From TrEMBL:
Residue ranges that the Swiss-Prot or TrEMBL entry lists as coiled coil: none
The protein, known as: NAD-dependent epimerase/dehydratase family protein
Organism: Alicyclobacillus fodiniaquatilis
Sequence ranges assigned to domain NAD-dependent epimerase/dehydratase in this UniProt record: 3-203
Signal peptide: none
């Protein structure tokens, strides 16, 4: 297949590109060119700012693709530019969305808890928070794209030493050092997904499946910050310490996994279309070892 990945130079996007290459697909990477990658001459590269609609149109005017993976779409304006650039030029569009499109609830969250086909799009807003930006990007794509669209609603992504966000390493390092981690007075469990598994799902959705629509991307199991840190503690031989953050925005030790709402994402739809998620804690020893300094084993 001839495949374009918008973004894809780090984290699970990098894993996706390596998987595509390993299976013999022709891959083009579109990015601003600010992040180095390890793909060498195995990929073609297009340098473009995806927020610049005119640049997107010019960059892809003569191109067509079997699949486009959009890893860095955050607003309806991004979606609008993509629809203009790829209308009539792509057979399938896989958009990386987020579980933050959901408001959160104590019960399991399903794809039906957010409907992008009826959500209002405001292209004139000056700013969006992360969740609303993704909601409106999904809405624009599903309501206006002339090509088939999939929105993978990705849970909190965890990985080892290639997690550029530093979120997982934050917890490993502070547990290992015996530093107290800031949490909320009420703990809320959330869903996680490993960088390996989200890359595998994206590959499945783009290359092996004809599914269209929104789909949750989450491993089995739900963990609060404290329960996750206790699992990390069992691997590093430390009992984690916690304190209730009086002002999370000003607490440098406040956990980036401490959500104010419960987000337990149900992954049954993925199973029904042929993709199974394991319990992500099977990867936990490897991820902790990578953060603590062990070499990586694979992409």
């Amino acid at each position: 297949m001839n495949i374009l990945v918008i973004g894809g130079t780090r984290f699970f996007g990098r894993r996706l590109v390596h998987k595509l290459l390993q299976h013999g697909h022709a891959v083009t990477i579109a990015s601003r060119g600010n992040t180095a990658d390890d793909f060498g001459d195995a990929v073609k590269r297009v340098r473009v700012d995806r927020a610049d609609d005119a640049a997107m149109l010019a960059a892809f005017a003569e191109q067509s693709y079997d699949v486009v993976f959009d890893q860095v779409g955050f607003t309806p304006q991004h979606a609008k530019g993509a629809v203009a650039a790829f209308a009539g030029r792509v057979k399938r569009y896989i958009f990386t969305s987020t579980m933050a499109v959901y408001e959160g609830k104590e019960a399991l969250t399903t794809e039906a808890d957010f409907d992008p086909f009826t959500h209002t799009v405001d292209l004139d807003a000056k700013a969006y928070d992360y969740g609303e930006g993704k909601r409106q990007a999904e809405a624009y794509l599903f309501q206006h794209a002339p090509f088939p669209v999939v929105a993978a609603r990705v849970a909190m992504v965890v990985s080892g030493d290639d997690d550029y966000t530093g979120r997982f390493a934050f917890h490993v390092q502070h547990v290992a050092e015996g530093t107290s981690i800031g949490v909320l007075a009420e703990e809320h469990p959330i869903s996680y997904v490993t960088a390996w598994d989200v890359a595998d799902l994206l590959y499945f959705l783009g290359v092996e499946s004809d599914f269209v629509g929104p789909i949750n991307a989450a491993n089995d199991g739900f963990y609060s910050t404290q329960s996750l840190c206790r699992q990390i503690g069992s691997l590093v031989g430390k009992t984690p310490l916690f304190h209730v953050a009086e002002n999370p925005d000003e607490d440098a030790l406040f956990s980036p996994y401490a959500f104010p709402v419960t987000l337990k994402v149900k992954n049954d739809l993925a199973r029904r279309i042929g993709f199974s998620f394991p319990d992500w804690t099977d990867r936990l020893p490897q991820m902790v070892a990578e953060v603590m300094g062990a070499p990586k084993r694979d992409h």
